[in-house]
Amino acid sequence: MRIGIIGAGQLGQMLGFAARDLGAECRFLDPSVSPPARVCGDVIQRPFDDAAALAELAADCDVITYEFENIPINALQQVEDKVAVYPPVDALRNAQDRLDEKRLFEQLGIPLPAYHAVATRADMIAAADVLGLPMVIKTRRLGYDGKGQYVVRATADIDAAWGQLGTQLLIAEQWVPFDYEVSSIGVRNVDGEIRIYALSHNVHEDGILRVSRSPVDAPLLAEKAAEYVRRLLLHLDYVGVLALELFVKDGQLLANEFAPRVHNSGHWTIEGAATSQFENHLRAVMNLPLGSTANHGHAGMINLIGEIPDRARKLGESHLHDYGKAPRPGRKLGHITVLSESAAGRDALVEQIYKTVT
Ligand code: AMP
After folding, report:
1. Which ligand 1 atom is at minimum distance from the Cα of 209?
2. pTM higher than 0.90
3. How large is the greatest C-alpha to C-alpha distance in the chain, in angstroms?
4. Which of 21, 79, 155, 338 has the greatest number of CB atoms lying within 10 Å of its CB?
């Protein structure tokens, strides 16, 4: 089977490695020079919405999927009458616009922080009245890793926030002084089989994921988060892996956003679960039976951001993944996974490695 993947970053690379073990071939579309997934298959180096490249991918592949959220919807629309495209275009459309995403959460009874749509400076002032301060201003579209965001702490910040982001459609969100952040990752195949991974506890620095740990010792929260993921999977008639990110505050879950793709907070599943999120995504879109999502003990994942220091390559008791990207500040270059029989053992390893690599 041949799988077309739009996007050839590290997520594409890890999908490509999983495809090899399933006996499937991958072909990628990505405008970058020398993207990480080039080691897993041919990359058509053209823009994501290049009509000729998309037609070539559609003609050559049995199914098309994507590993990158900011691809133009029309790229998928150009191919979906020729070849199956998973996850469905509607899921990507909802995930690309924070307002649509929040309305979807509301429609499905998934709790979320209070928000206010902002198109004008007056809307931003009204949002501060309704939500209180601090509030977070986010671009509705094309935000990732905390980019396109401004925390308004005092009324005096409104001009600066408007000056920085006011040319785009925005959303204001209540500031959530969360206790911690989690993500729940689920997968559904073409036949409708669903599996959900154990909850991940995620720590972000400067809006970028730094550390994930799974499972989380909070069975009721895990069950609730899994139920929310199930609602999204069913409502969207979803096929593939979906990640839902949530805040935990006073024992309650509040949805932040969902990603219609394999997710950084699920990288621990490569060594830490019976079947990785990458293999299960492929199984889903190839309509194979899904693999078990059970954990192998307690897993931790530390992102390597900006550089991979030599000492990160000399650690025992851990699994290094180097995506082969050129170093640049703030860039995700790789990650390290650790496994332990106990949560305390895992946390000690995470702490030790975090200190070593930062
Ligand atoms: P996002 O791009 O929405 O995932 O935001 C990136 C990170 O910023 C989140 O993982 C949180 O750590 C933080 N953040 C985003 N929205 C809020 C909020 N409403 N309240 C508090 N922190 C937030």
Report:
1. 10
2. yes
3. 58
4. 338
